[in-house]
Amino acid sequence: MAVNPMSMAPMAVTPPERVPRLRWRPTRQADLPECMPLVPPWLGLSSAERAALPALWAQIVNAPAIYSMVIEDLGLAPGQRVQAWGVAMALAPEWVARWSLDHRPEPLIVARVYRALLAGETLMDETSFGRVNACGELSMLCLHYGMHYADIEHPYVQALIAAGNESMRFGMSGHQLSALYYENAAESDGWMRAAGFLQRSMPEAAPLHYWGMSRAEAMRTIPGSTARQLFESHPPRFRLSVSQRRLLWRALFDEDDARLAQDLGVSAHGLKKLWRGIYERVSDVVPDFFGDAGGEDDGKRGPEKRRQVLAYVRQRPEELRPWVGAAA
Amino acid sequence: MSFSPDRPDFASRLRHRPMRRSDVAECMGLLPPWLELDAEQRSLLPALWERLVYEPGVVTGVSEETALPPGQRLQGWGTTLVMPAQWLHEVALACTAQPELGTVATRAVYQALLDGRLQVPSEREIAQANAGDGVVFLALHYYQLRVDLSSPYALRLLSMANEAYRMHHAGYRVRAVFQQASQADEPWLNGAGFRRRHAALPGPAAMQPVLYGVTREEAAAMLPGITARHVFEHQVPRFRLTSTQRRLLWLALFDESDAHLMPLLEVSVHGLKKLWRGIYERIEDVEPAFFGDAAASEDEGKRGPEKRRQVLAYVRQRPEELRPWP
What we know:
The structure holds two protein chains of two kinds. Chain A is an alpha+beta fold. Helices cover 39% and strands 16% of the residues of chain A. Chain A is globular.
């Protein structure tokens, strides 16, 4: 059994021949045991640090500054479905400066990030995130994307990479990004380039390659690639609360109310109240938003209103992101 | 246009959606100048498009600026036809040696549609191609009101066009995708991963049509990430839904209300409910555990919205369920 250079999981030479039923969604606490074997071995973490990751991830998986998506194969049995895991982190300008991300950083950036978090440093909270986002100084560091298989010629692996691109486009869009950073293994050069990332210099003999894109570079790039797409942004219009945004983000994956209530830690009544709050806020800002569905009978009109709100935010993801500043 | 979308205080609210029959008049303002149809052809286009817009062999979407008043919202229009298999060899591949075939591809298709020599393929024909060697797409044209790529708003529109193209063309087994555009459009076509198929003829770049495209063999040499490569991702559908069921799901993906869906599908409230029930039943036949707890009740009125969400969640990421398959 070989070891995948992009993850620590033992791998067969090629994936099993099966029809993939891939879908991507935000990571849940319950996914973490399946995600841990997808942490790449090249991060440069010690055994002790690696052993501490499950507890760290249990703390941060739902943090506002963390973007974490799994790609699961619905054709497999529950508990064996997660085929890829990608994570990124929103960074304040101080963290960018501290690790020289805009210059020539020392290799093994992600290991240093993990060490800082394991030592108790905290991620950006909603308010700081919103402030940095609103003034266009937000950066994102892609921590890692791991798959069980590394044979990128194989259609199953290409389907996983395609799903990884889609999940990134959807999961990380809607911010006023200043820059994107991504340190990755040399084996991933092909798909990093295909996703539109630009290679940066690192000290010679660095074990990893360093990639990125700045806003200025994005604005000089014609749209089409994944990296370029993440720089599309507008100020939000509705300025929804943290819980309202979180509910909408989860609801975009068409989860049922029972699952949404569980994920958000609210009762069925609390969930209805959250939806009502969203409809009221939207109607306050744009009184004719719901057209004929604007009646007060929420029990009857709720699903229609929900569809209209979701249709809007699905293509206007800035409404889902933290924002502390002037309204549009 | 009186609005200034590049002004910092303009709050853009772009979205994309499938074209509707009621968009035809506005879309006629979005025909590219390089198309150079004569006056008679142009006068016949509105009626042609009213006939074509809901054909299964036509893939067409608009980008609209919802911050503008109705009737002035459309900012971009793109439209694609599923082409007969022989067109791939007779025109798209042959134009490398005979550029004049490539330069008039869209004009020739319009003329053939107008005089009846070309019929848009039926559901059955698309299904056969989809399950066989794959469908050949020709994007007849994409045009947006703002074309100067130094304008941030023009780039936004282009970005939206990429998203729309990915969504509208995904889920087919694709043999090749082609796009007619002008020589001046080459930067954004390259940005989306399309390659020029032939040399451009002499003349102003903005008025010289060129055929761009990617074949399956070329896509196989690319890694995922870019628009043109993305549409070659394909799996065999699992549920084999009917044509009307697929159409309902496709339109529902844009979160249209029932009131909007009914006239588009030409069904009553009762007919719409029946369609949804048929979809749930078909899915449960193939995969009894699909709905989990939501399947426990037969009360469609109560459980319908939950089931609908689950189905839409699935097909949104598995678009092969939305495409014709025998």
